[in-house]
């Protein structure tokens, strides 16, 4: 868990503090994201900022780029 979500500089004590504040996800969210696979980028009407990081262990830069490109009015910042 440490390697996937935190940099090596973050101590185990700091991680424990963050995890203590987490709450369970809602059943509806789990149903929609896991079982129904309902991404609907066409329904997003607000500005969207997608950030990607080369050392992200959860989402690749390519996946984040695909997320950003799902919006028609994309502006890429390098």
Notable traits:
78 residues; mainly alpha
Compact overview of the structure:
The chain has 4 helices and no strands.
In percent, how helical is the residue content? 40-55%
Mean pLDDT: 80
Instruction: Tell me, briefly, the overall form.
Output: extended
Radius of gyration: 16 Å
Q: Structural class of the helices, strands and pairings?
A: mainly alpha
Largest beta-sheet details? none
Alpha-carbon distance between the two ends? 29 Å
Assembly level: single chain
Counting DSSP E segments of at least 2 residues, the number of strands comes to 0
The poorly predicted ranges are none
Q: Could you explain how this protein is built, in words?
A:
This protein has helices spanning 2-5, 12-20, 27-36, 61-69. The protein has 78 residues and is mainly alpha-helical. The mean pLDDT is 80.
Protein topology:
Blueprint: H1 2-5, H2 12-20, H3 27-36, H4 61-69
């Amino acid at each position: 868990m440490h390697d996937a979500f935190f940099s090596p500089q973050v101590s185990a004590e700091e991680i424990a503090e963050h995890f203590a504040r987490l709450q369970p996800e809602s059943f509806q969210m789990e149903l929609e994201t896991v079982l129904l696979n309902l991404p609907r980028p066409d329904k997003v009407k607000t500005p969207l900022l997608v950030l990607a990081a080369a050392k992200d262990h959860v989402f690749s830069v390519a996946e984040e780029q695909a997320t950003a490109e799902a919006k028609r009015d994309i502006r890429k910042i390098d």
